[in-house]
Design a protein that fits this description.
The protein is of the alpha/beta class and 245 residues long. Helices cover 30% and strands 19% of the residues. The protein has a single domain (2-235), classed as Rossmann fold, CATH 3.40.50.1360. α1 (9-31) packs across α2.
Length: 245
């Protein structure tokens, strides 16, 4: 895993977007197309705002959704579909984007639907983050590193839900859903390359644990170290607790 430390989150977003765009262009040159996974949340604001400015032939890019709350309508301000549509999908001429429909009657059927689509596709670049509790996608600790399904219904722990409240997506903790459809750790790691954007001091403890602690389910972010083509983009605040920082 290569760690890139920027002065602030704007610089982080620019650096992560440039690397991600380069990887997308390389995939298009190699395979004639690129398939990407796109994350959401406050940590991705700057990266996405810069990625849409990059010189990419989006007509050859297919996108996949990392996770979505169970029961969440796409009109809610916390909807990840709404987030991606407004901050990414509608702003580039992308070939296709596969959303997770979180408010379907049976979430397991939705896991199977989108997982089946993904099963025949090689992901070239996954854009992800790390949660305050160390989660990767909505794989809260202890995460199942051996789960084979591409998507599953995750039970969200309190720390995860408190993060969503703290970021301003909900008015109270009771409003934060207790479940989400999430991509599995194993599926994320099947990507050819991973760009992890993790700014802000509130992520410093999770960053330190993800980088320096033993790889294992108690810190899901450590799974990124199992991948041989991962870039972890930090700012000074999120990197502040790392040894030697």
């Amino acid at each position: 895993m290569e760690i890139v430390i920027s002065n602030d989150k704007q610089e982080l977003g620019e650096s992560a977007a440039k690397r991600g765009a380069e990887l997308i262009r390389n995939a298009i040159e190699k395979d004639g197309e690129a398939n990407v996974i796109v994350a959401t949340g406050a940590s991705q604001f700057e990266m996405l705002s810069e990625l849409i400015k990059e010189n990419v032939d989006w007509s050859k890019v297919t996108g996949f959704h990392l996770d979505e709350y169970v029961g969440m309508p796409n009109t809610h301000k916390a909807s990840f579909r709404k987030y991606l549509k407004e901050r990414f999908v509608d702003l580039v001429p992308i070939k296709k984007f596969y959303y997770i429909e979180g408010d379907v009657e049976n979430p397991l059927d939705e896991c199977n639907r989108i997982g089946k689509i993904l099963s025949s596709i090689q992901i070239h670049v996954a854009f992800v983050g790390i949660g305050e509790n160390g989660h990767l996608a909505f794989n809260d600790p202890p995460a199942d590193f051996e789960r084979e399904e591409a998507y599953f219904v995750a039970d969200l722990d309190k720390a995860c839900r408190e993060q969503q409240l703290g970021e301003g997506w909900f008015d109270s903790l009771k409003d934060v859903p207790k479940q989400a459809i999430s991509m599995s750790v194993k599926q994320v790691l099947k990507s050819e390359a991973i760009i992890a954007s993790v700014p802000d001091s509130r992520k410093a403890v999770a960053v330190k644990k993800s980088v320096e602690s033993e790889i294992g389910p108690e810190v899901p972010g450590t799974a990124l170290r199992l991948h041989n083509k991962t870039w972890l983009y930090l700012d000074r605040a999120s990197a502040s607790l790392l040894n030697g920082s």
